[in-house]
Amino acid sequence: MATPARPPPSPIVLFIYPATLLLGSLFSTISPTAQSTRRLEAPSTQPAGALAPSLAADLHLSQSPVNYFARKNNIFNIYFVKIGWLWTTLAFASLILAQPAFRSTSQQTRIRRTLQAISRYALATTVWYVMTQWFFGPAIIDRSFVYTGGKCQEILKQAGEARSNLTPSTQLETVFSAAACKSAGGIWGGGHDISGHVFMLVLTTALLAFEANGVGAFSLGSRAEGDGSRERKGSDPSDVRGDQDDGSGLARTWSLRFVWGVVGLGWWMLFMTAIWFHTWTEKWSGLLIALSTVYAIYILPRKLAPWRDIVGVPGA
């Protein structure tokens, strides 16, 4: 199997995620603005000393939060985070369609790289889907919330005291998810609400960053080979850049700009989530699940050859 033109990034780079959450959580604790926003958002069922409101419980505000990014209806949350996997898919597809790692190689290598990249994307998508969308019924995040004591509080209150004696599994059947609870006018509260925002944003940005680094490594290797060939053959420099004359070079450039733009905005929204939403434990549990997924897809194949033969390594 071919090796990348430069070594893949060290797993140490993943420490940017806990560092981001730590910085955001500390800011939310010491900032007067964040403290005033938390007081506005804290529901009656939440202890006054909670470090941050639950993401699922801040929909019934009588006043607007002080900071724009603390509002659930901010434009970036609605049109980027809420449909974040769509942006991830578009960015990933742009790499497959525009980058020479998947186009300017032999047919066998091109097919292998493409299938392995799609396998990595499919694995990440599957984890995202079962965690946040559906897992033989409610998603795992919703299931874990109910099993740790969470419930759709307003709906249960309206139904009377008898309903409070229902088992968690029965409650789960009655109000299937946080989305169903909110749409029915209830408050999804009382349990451990794993941060779906943290989980998705970490998984999205790490996936795209590793893939972009891989195609960047291949491009550097191709350029080095082209320079060596030009020196040996005495060809004109324009021969090496000939593939850019048909517009493919522009497509490659904008593909990477798009990918890194999604990564940058994803990191910023992760930082905003760290400041304004969820408790410490809810944010860190979402981080742990996301990093475990990233490790299995992008770090473990470097150490486990049979697994590497299946999912590959970006750029190899």
What distinguishing features does this structure have?
two-stranded antiparallel sheet, 14 helices, 316 residues
Give the total of beta strands: 2
Q: Count up the helices.
A: 14
- The unreliable regions are 43-62, 170-174, 224-245
How are the strands of the largest sheet arranged? 1-2
How much of the sequence lies in strands comes to under 5%
Termini distance? 7 Å
Spatial shape: globular
**What's the mean pLDDT score?**
78
Helices and strands, in order, run as HHHHHHEHHHEHHHHH
From the alpha carbons, calculate the radius of gyration and give it in angstroms.
23 Å
Give the fraction of residues assigned to helices: 55-70%
Class from secondary-structure proportions: mainly alpha
Largest beta-sheet characterization: 2 strands, antiparallel
What does this structure look like?
The protein is an all-alpha fold and 316 residues long. Helices cover 64% and strands 1% of the residues. The chain is built from 14 helices and 2 strands. It has helices spanning 16-30, 32-41, 75-81, 84-98, 107-132, 140-147, 153-159, 168-174, 178-183, 196-233, 237-240, 248-276, 280-303, 305-311, and strands at 151-152, 188-189. Strands 1-2 form a two-stranded antiparallel ribbon. Helix 4 packs antiparallel against helix 5 (107-132). The longest helix is centred in the C-terminal third of the chain and has 38 residues, at 196-233. The radius of gyration is 23 Å and the shape is globular. The termini are close together.
